[in-house]
Amino acid sequence: QVQLVESGGGLVQAGGSLRLSCAASGRTFSSSAMGWYRQAPGKERELVATIGSGGSMKYADSVKGRFTISRDNAKNTVYLQMNSLEPEDTGVYYCVYLRGNYWGQGTQVTVSS
């Protein structure tokens, strides 16, 4: 069993920045790839970014160049640095422990125009 707790969401103006954090407990954090998904109102959940156990990163085309995923295995934490935020980035952001598909409860990000 894995427990994931996200934090760092909030309300920000377009062009602003937020940093999401996800603290994991319960299993060996360093051995699993981690990901961030988001779900906008009325839309399907979509993958935003992933980071492998070795540190390789992948991004959705919509966030490339603006978002950065990183991990700190010593702290069992994965981060999502979000810059140049746009109203289209609004949604609930979920942290996922990909080995076993464990999900956090989500954190709301709202970007105002």
Could you describe the 3D structure shown?
- This protein has 113 residues and is mostly beta strands.
- 0% of the residues lie in helices and 52% in strands.
- It is built from no helices and 11 strands.
- It has strands spanning 3-7, 10-13, 18-25, 34-39, 46-51, 57-59, 67-72, 77-82, 91-97, 102-103, 107-112.
- The strands form 2 sheets. Strands 2, 4, 5, 6, 9, 10 and 11 form a 7-stranded mixed β-sheet that branches.
- Strand 4 and strand 5 form a beta hairpin.
- It is globular and about 40 Å long.
- The N and C termini lie far apart (40 Å).
Structural class: mainly beta
What proportion of the residues is helical, as a percent range? under 10%
Stretches where pLDDT falls below 50 for ≥5 residues? Answer: none
- Total helices: the number is 0
Averaging pLDDT over every residue, what do you get? 96
- The backbone outline, from C-alpha atoms, is globular
- How far apart are the first and last residues' alpha carbons, in Å? 40 Å
| SS strand fraction | over 45%
Main β-sheet, in a few words? 7 strands, mixed
Rg calc: 13 Å
SSE succession: EEEEEEEEEEE
Extended strand count: 11
Task: Please write out the topology.
Layout: E1 3-7, E2 10-13, E3 18-25, E4 34-39, E5 46-51, E6 57-59, E7 67-72, E8 77-82, E9 91-97, E10 102-103, E11 107-112
Parallel strand pairs: 2-11
Antiparallel strand pairs: 1-3, 3-8, 4-5, 4-9, 5-6, 7-8, 9-10, 9-11
